[in-house]
Amino acid sequence: MSNELDKLVLIDGNSIISRAFYAIPPLTSSNGLHTNAVLGFTTMLLKVLEEEKPSHVLVAFDAGKVTFRHEGYSEYKGGRQKTPPELSEQFPLLKELLQAFSISQFELAGYEADDIIGTMARLAEEQGKTAIVVSGDKDMLQLTTDQVSVLITRKGVSEVERYTPSAIGEKYGLTPAQIIDLKGLMGDASDNIPGVPGVGEKTALKLLHEFGTVENVLANIEEIKGKLRENIESHMDDARMSKQLATIFREVPLDYSLDDVTWKGYDSAVLAGALRKLEFKNLVERLNLSGANDATEAESAEAASQYEVVRVDTVGWERLNGALATAEAVLVESSGDNPHHGEGIGLSIVSGSECFTIPYAYLASPEAASLRSWLENAEASKTCYDAHRVELILASSGIALSGQTFDVQLAAYLLDPTEADPSLQGLLQRHGLPPILSDEAVYGKGAKYRLPGDGELAKHLAAKADAIRRLKPLLSEKLEKLGMNELFYELEQPLSGVLAKMEMQGITVQTEALQDLGTEFQRRIDEITKAVYESAGFEFNIGSPRQLGEVLFERLGLPVVKKTKTGYSTDAEVLEKLEPHHEIVRLILHYRQLAKLQSTYIEGLLKEIRPETGKIHTFYKQTIAATGRLSSQFPNLQNIPIRMEEGRQIRKAFVPSEPGWVILAADYSQIELRVLAHISGDDGLKEAFLKDMDIHTKTAMDVFGVPADQVDGNMRRQAKAVNFGIVYGISDWGLSQNLNITRGEAADFIEQYYRTFPGVKRYMVTVVEEAKKNGYVTTMMQRRRLLPEINHSNFNLRSFAERTAMNTPIQGTAADIIKLAMLRMNEALLERGLRSRMLLQVHDELVFEVPQEELEAMKALVPDVMSTALKLDVPLLAEVSVGSNWYEAK
DNA sequence: TCTGTCACG
DNA sequence: ACGTACGTGACAGAC
């Protein structure tokens, strides 16, 4: 029950931990984790708890990188130094420690800690409670009232300065509400809030004492003189925006009430355990916790996962071989992004209380024979991290990985495909497990990448193998609970091996054909460059969007159609609008096209051809796309030109690897719209596909209300755009942009479409409703995508999530289907003993190389497997074509 | 390292 | 009133 004695302490977690990090000298625990910031935070916390004796305590954290503040001002907090890894690795430690304190912690995507604190302080006040805000950031002073005081840390973290409205009055001569005006005028370099140049604290205070608010300063600008006036006049918008950015948002939609942050003190045993783990011995003493028993459940789990690091190199092989039978997880560490060029660093294998680490070079030694056969043994089941990459690395050492029954990276991807950080460190944190050192902390990043000493390396590899072991039960249980076992065990995991096989096979690309094409492109580029210079009357770098913008819009005076945040936009859409104004525009469009082909496709692909084999080996990433699609890298073979004839020529260089063979390509016809017909159950759409009608023409007939023979090219084009729009999660605005029509006309199209296909409309409404209720959407194979922003109060974030809710089940199910087809195709080739090889996947297309004598069989087999991969209420159609290269196979 | 642009489905 | 179509990767230029 609340009464006026209730007192809240609200702590700005991010602010205090980073102050502590810079204030306290470096400190590491014996396992190498940095702990100085956690120690500083704890010192501050204990002091506040002691002095304030609060009834409620909350620590708020910033969540994610992008907040609503970035929407109005994308540079918000820009230019800020990256959080050093020594600090970021302390966040999980702090969060764990706060749990031991039984202190609540909140964070909410899209908001900063300030906003959560501001909201809680408001709630406290409304309920007649008092609140103490603790932060290192003076912005917080705006929250001060008779009931809310603010403690700002000074030099260090344990010394604080207490601010009340009267204290602020004495110190600055301002009211708390004017703090944001102060910021608006002076800015804040650390958050990249501009303010007005030349206005620091002194000038800002003088202005506010005279005029009171930013708005009043601007309204009375004529009373200000000289340079100051000029500065303010030219930065009025900056001042207004800066004030807005500095304003704490006090209406955060929190799912919590004040009661949820009640604090009744900590459990001595739990806290003692947590502090001992961090090796804060002095604090244990100071709090008289020495006697407290710390054998909590968490602690024993921790103890159970302890292991001895056994370094295997010239010695230790017998011990390793003895442990292989009970091995639980294996880690293969390698360097570089491209696993086809990766170098093995080392292996670690965890088995019971032992973790063996082996330098990669020893894998080839005679002593490693048992290890090699264990890696290749399908019966020896292995938990790994990124088995696909491991398979490629080992393959380059002549080892064929087998028995990979659980991949924690793949499992984590399926549980949350939008999570950008797939590192083991990130997985541990997200699944609430004790952390290990980050790769970045051990190896460094970019140019600073280097391997640490053998001892440190062994420790790290062991910690990673142990982390894999600890993650597995958690992840497998979650998959099971969400009904994703089939997707994981029957689809994604087996697919990883199929992908590795395709990549290792590679596709032959004719160097000479590319070079000849490149010579021709270059000739045209030179010609056009000359014509552009002539047309402009001077020379400049056409490839520089900035210089091009200057030339077009300043020197040639063409109308500005669109701006980017850094200047004029010069993209193709803009240039097409400018075409009638100046002959140079057409030349630039053609230049752009050729330059793209030359740099990305001629030069880029040439660099990727292996001279020994004449092949290109792409790498399919299975854990990138939020919808479940694959992505292709080093090089990307999923975006080879086809739409324009000039670029399409590139495909002529993609040929079979053996004489007398052919390229066979098969693509799904309208797979996404067929999936939509199935999921929505719309009768009209289903019927169209059952009758195998041209879907865009059919749509045109219905939307425009005309018979088939009156559908002209333009109508069909517009109908096609409507169909695309439907799949993307349509909005009238988006469609109007695409078709260059008014928003009203686009809205009419959509309405007419929905009238024709009411089942589709029902689906769109339902899927969004379901997403709002559940927080996620799923595909037919139970692939899921979380949509945390589907109920967000911000229109943009919410709308984006709604379109995603409509699109993901469609695009994702199409991805499910082709992945199933790939598995089935792989099996079919093996079963029938065919020599034909599956080489590429391009979202709705599979590319094979086929010996002549198998051609007839493959022409029947491939479309059959593809169209029966998953049973839908409408037929799935796959169309095959054959040629002597990828261009011909169209 | 980030931004703008453009290649694909 | 809000202001993007969904999903990717690679390159050049500018910092």
From TrEMBL:
Keyword Transferase listed: yes
InterPro entries hit by this protein: 3'-5'_exonuclease_dom, 5-3_exonucl_a-hlix_arch_N, 5-3_exonuclease, 5-3_exonuclease_C_sf, DNA-dir_DNA_pol_A_CS, DNA-dir_DNA_pol_A_palm_dom, DNA/RNA_pol_sf, DNA_polI_exonuclease
Family the entry assigns: Belongs to the DNA polymerase type-A family.
Domain 5'-3' exonuclease: 6-264
Record-listed E.C. numbers: 2.7.7.7
Keywords from the named record: DNA damage, DNA repair, DNA replication, DNA-binding, DNA-directed DNA polymerase, Exonuclease, Hydrolase, Nuclease, Nucleotidyltransferase, Transferase
Domain 3'-5' exonuclease: 311-480
CDD domains: DNA_pol_A_pol_I_C (cd08637), DNA_polA_I_Bacillus_like_exo (cd06140), H3TH_53EXO (cd09898), PIN_53EXO (cd09859)
One GO BP: DNA-templated DNA replication
Catalytic reaction(s) noted: DNA(n) + a 2'-deoxyribonucleoside 5'-triphosphate = DNA(n+1) + diphosphate
Record-given protein name: DNA polymerase I
Domain of life of the native organism: Bacteria
Domain DNA-directed DNA polymerase family A palm, residue spans: 647-854
